[in-house]
Amino acid sequence: MKTFWLIFSLVIGALAASAQSSTSAYGFLDIPTSAHVFALGGTNPAIIDEDPTLAQQNPALLGPEIGMAAGVGYMHYIGDSNFGSAVFGKSAGDLAAWGIGVRYLNYGSFEGRDETGALTGDFSAQDVVIGGTYSHVITDRLRGGINLDFAYSSYEAYSALAISVDLGINYYDEERDMSLSLVLKNMGGQVKRFDTRYARLPFDLRLGWMQAIGRSPFSLTLTAMRLTEWKGSVLRHFIAGAQYSPEGKFYAAIAFNPGMRSDMEGYRKSLLSGWSVGAGLRIKAFGVGVAFAQPHRGATSLLLNLSTDIRSLL
C-alpha cells in the first residue's frame, strides 16, 4: 500500500508540474553539489554511497545507513561563479532518515548600465537554496523520499522566491549491485516574482540505472533526463558513465553528456565538451571527492567535496 501511494504521488506531481506554462528559470537548482555526481555527468539519481550530498539528486538516496554525517562543497563554475554548499544527514530509527542543507551561488560582480548605456555602478547576483530531505524504507529493496527547497534569488535591485519539491524512489539489489531510480525534479513555482512575468521551475522526469559488471569493481551507469521536453536528438536526453570502485573506499569515474556538448555547438565547443571526470577517497571517518569538466574552451568547472561520519568522531 505504501508503494502504491508513493507512485500515485509521483504521477500526480508529474501531471501538475507539466501543466505549468510560461518561461522556465531557476536552472541553478540542477547544479550538482556532489563531486561524485559531477564526475558522472552532472545528473545521476542512482548512485549508491553513504554521502549526504546525493540527496539533492534523489531524496531516496539518503537512508538510515547514513548514521550521522555532514558534508561541505565548493565549486568554481563557469566564469567568475563560485558556489558553496553544506549538508547534514541523520538516520531516524531503522527505516528513515532526514537531512538539511544550504547552497549559496555567487555569480561575481557585473557592470551596471541604464537604458542609455550610462554606467550605474557594479552590482552582484546570487542565489540561496535552503532545504530539507526525508526518506523512508518501503521494502528491503525499495525506498522513497522527498526534498523541499526554498530558493531565494537576488539580482541587483530585483529579488524572487520559489518553492521546489522533488519526489524520488530507488530500487537497490545489493546482491547484484544494481540501482534503479525514478525522480520528479523541481516541482513547484514562484512565491515572489522578479517582475510581472511568471518564471516556472525547470521540472524534469529522470530515470537512473547503475550496475556493477559481474563481480568486478567496474560499474556502468545511464541517466535519462529532460523526459518531459523532447527536443533535438534522442542522445541529448541521456548521460552515460563508467566507474571503478574497489571495495567501496575509492572511486574513479568518467561520463559523457551529449546534451551538454550539443548545447555548446555554437559557443567555442572544445574536445572536452560534454565529458567529465572525477575521483573520491574515503579514509576512516572522512571522505574527499573532486570532479572536473570543461563545457567549452573558455569555461572550466571544478567541484570539491569533503564529508565526515560524525558518529565515528564521537
Rg, Å, rounded: 19 Å
Give me the strand/helix succession: HEHEEEEEEEEEEEEHEEEH
Q: Which architecture name does CATH use?
A: Beta Barrel
Estimate the strand proportion: over 45%
Supply the number of helical segments: 4
Task: Please outline the major beta sheet.
Answer: 14 strands, antiparallel, barrel
* C-alpha end-to-end distance: 39 Å
- Runs with pLDDT <50, length 5+? 1-23
In the CATH hierarchy, the third-tier topology is known as Porin
Provide a concise account of the structure shown:
The chain has 314 residues and is mainly β.
Description:
By secondary structure, the chain is mainly beta. Helix content is 10%, strand content 53%. It has helices spanning 2-18, 35-39, 258-263, 310-313; strands at residues 23-24, 68-76, 82-91, 96-113, 119-137, 142-155, 158-173, 178-192, 199-200, 204-212, 218-224, 238-244, 250-256, 275-283, 286-296, 299-309. The N and C termini lie far apart (39 Å).
Which features would summarize this protein structure in a list?
10% helix; globular; disordered N terminus; mainly beta; 314 residues
How would you summarize the topology of this molecule?
Blueprint: H1 2-18, E1 23-24, H2 35-39, E2 68-76, E3 82-91, E4 96-113, E5 119-137, E6 142-155, E7 158-173, E8 178-192, E9 199-200, E10 204-212, E11 218-224, E12 238-244, E13 250-256, H3 258-263, E14 275-283, E15 286-296, E16 299-309, H4 310-313
Parallel strand pairs: 1-9
Antiparallel strand pairs: 2-3, 2-16, 3-4, 4-5, 5-6, 6-7, 7-8, 8-10, 10-11, 11-12, 12-13, 13-14, 14-15, 15-16
